[in-house]
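Whiteboard transcription, Tuesday session. T.W. wrote the structure tokens on the left side:
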């Protein structure tokens, strides 16, 4: 059983970390970027970069080899409509930022696997679809806390449902399913 706690160190704040049940002397830290504090004067989100300014740079940040950048751009083309739908639906900034953080992790894992197994021939849309499902997403090696894994899997399930609905909508308009 895990306790999830918040820690602060002086002026610098860290994300949540998970530790074994109370009374244990060992701790396993998993520090994630802290989401921005919300104020009543926060500018409403109208574009992806309002919630995630580094979104266009993700492919370069995921890059291990030069081939990863164009592939990463293909992944962004899959993620962008999903994020934009949450914005259009009026989701809270914190919710959108959380999903963006989880998509960042998912994209990094996809790029890693594509490079590791030399699967650049598989279309990014198909690779994203193969990486998410009704039970969550592919394993993320950066998450070792139940709360973060649960959040990540929740984003992956939501993305999977979105892509399924998008595919059905495309077929009903006479367009072939992408992928």
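and on the right, the sequence the group agreed on:
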């Amino acid at each position: 059983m895990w306790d999830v706690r918040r820690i602060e160190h002086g002026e610098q704040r860290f994300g949540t970390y998970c530790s074994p049940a109370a009374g244990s002397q060992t701790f396993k830290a998993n520090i994630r970027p802290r989401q921005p504090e919300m104020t009543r004067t926060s500018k409403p989100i109208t574009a992806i970069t309002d919630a995630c300014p580094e979104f266009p740079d993700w492919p370069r940040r995921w890059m291990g080899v030069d081939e990863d950048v164009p592939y990463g751009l293909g992944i962004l083309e899959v993620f962008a409509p999903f994020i934009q739908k949450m914005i259009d639906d009026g989701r809270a900034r914190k919710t959108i930022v959380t999903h963006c953080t989880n998509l960042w992790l998912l994209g990094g894992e996809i790029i890693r696997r594509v490079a590791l197994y030399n699967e650049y021939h598989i279309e990014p849309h198909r690779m994203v679809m193969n990486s998410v499902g009704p039970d969550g997403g592919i394993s993320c090696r950066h998450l070792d806390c139940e709360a973060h894994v649960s959040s990540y899997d929740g984003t992956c399930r939501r993305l999977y449902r979105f892509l399924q609905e998008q595919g059905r909508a495309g077929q009903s308009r006479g367009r072939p399913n992408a992928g």
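Someone added at the bottom: The radius of gyration is 18 Å.
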